[in-house]
Amino acid sequence: MPIDFRNTNTVWASVLVETLQRVGLSTAVICPGSRSAPLTIAFAQNNKIETIPILDERSASFFALGIAQKSGLPAALICTSGTAAANFYPAIIEARESRIPLLIFTADRPPEMRDCHAGQAIDQVKIYGNYPNWQAELAIPSASTGMLDYLRQTVMYAIERSLFPTKGPVHLNIPFRDPLVPVPDIAVEALETQFNPEHFFAGLEPIVAGESSTSPSLPLLRGGEESTMQEWHKCSKGIIIAGVSQPQFAEKYCSAIAHISKSLNWPVLAEGLSPVRNYAQLNPHLISTYDLILRNPFLADKLIPEIAIQIGDLPTSKELRNWLDKTQPKRYIIDPSHHNFDPLHGQTVHLRTSVENLAVNLATILTLVPTLNKGESTLVPPLKQGELGGVLTSPSNEYLQLWCNTEIQVRETIDQKISAINKIIEPKVSWLLSQILPPATPIFIANSMPVRDVEFFWKPNSLEIKPFFNRGANGIDGTLSTALGVAHRNQSSIMLTGDLALLHDTNGFLIKNKFVGHLTIILINNNGGGIFEMLPVAKFDPPFEEFFATPQHINFAQLCATYGVEHEVIENWEQFKQKLISLPNSGIRVLEVQTDRRSDAKWRQDNLTKIAKGL
After folding, report:
1. What is the largest CA-CA distance in the chain?
2. Closest-CA residue to 515 (of 69, 101, 63, 87)
3. C-alpha 113: how far from its chain's center?
4. pTM over 0.85, yes/no
5. End-to-end distance of the chain based on CA atoms, in angstroms?
6. DSSP line for 356-396
């Protein structure tokens, strides 16, 4: 019998956990505490759910976030009452903004023990504001069959709301009266004879990983589907922007973008955090150096598009954002969620569908009418649902050719310049990683400077590397814990981080004893916040160094020794390559790359400008 009938709380908690298990929840992250004891015991007793205890609530929440990022399915997060719940808040914000499914269960004091200084009792109802997709406080546990029906249905609804219509966090606040431990209650034990688990749980179906909110066809477009897509096809000055994205099925996502690009003869400006750069074999019109290209005023003017298709969030590049803001092309934003993805407030149309569906619809519509682009009458062959093969394309246009020729020129310049550098310098780290990692390696990229270096220098490749990141709220909190969550029971993984982001989450190392798999942390140690060196505030010192760069002067070898984590300082690029061309199967290690914050910032500023001027 999966239900624990020792007392009311054990029945309530075990029904909740069994419901989660039957619909396919595989992982629960639990923080220690007394009020949550019924939930903790129920999860620990269910041998089909991996239950992971983690001391620090903030680390625990980001670890669960990383697990959900990787799987596309919700992970459960459990804590006791009081400020424990407050420590989940940053991860819940990130889950909301990055559309990652999480199920948060906060144990609470019953109503009669609130607002009376009972201890460890705060107002937990709607504690996370508007960030959850849905939130509710459950009723006080009851062992009646009707109330158990209510519990099962409410938990099922919570799971659904974490996935539909848009993925995100769901919060259930759960009050428990004493006894919190499984002491027997004869009255409750009698209920066992009346309970039929197969009947009670009948109809529960396992959830599967996939993209939420993907309709089988496009919603009605302004002017109709056919006229809109024909307008795209007739336009010779269009671009596709593959923005910040971590799709569940990267190859299908990249194939869809490639099909649209080849159908329209438009270039794809691919963000460094997009998997598109790591599936370069699929897309002959891939542009990775747009940030540098757009720093050249002459080219920025010549390359102004009439139409832009934006897929997901805009890229990190400020140059690209400013260019789009200034030129204001008609922009179509492709994303299945209900979020607003236009911080530029331009002439935008949100198409609430997936890029995979868009590719299928585009192929279907373009077979109905001969293409009128430059007098050609080539038909684009249709795609079957789920099939994104090659397409016939009309002759290349001058606009596309200018993008592609400039990309080749800039890429060659960058590659020659960086390959010739022998000293340790930050930009070369991202450039090398894009070429030497084992195929399909997951890599978590921390915010601030690492994400910019990836944008500038990550070279297109066909290694199918899988980028992960917390770009919803763009914070540095929880970086290590999220990376460990991504790497847990996954392929050996990489984390690229600066020193401050790692220091902000060193409690994440406490996960080490429960972590299964391998994570290599590439630590860029420039003793401070490198991103601030790139900003105007760097010219004002004081207070810049003390209050913005905030150097911490940490001996990372000693820090790693405290947590029992392997540590090594990288002395040269050959050593760096040898440590990364193949990865261990287990454990955590830190490869520390010591750099000069000021000189690296100057190198970027000088060389990015020189390359752009030289075009």
Report:
1. 85
2. 63
3. 39
4. yes
5. 72
6. HHHHHHHHHHHTTS---GGG--PPPPP--TT-------PPP
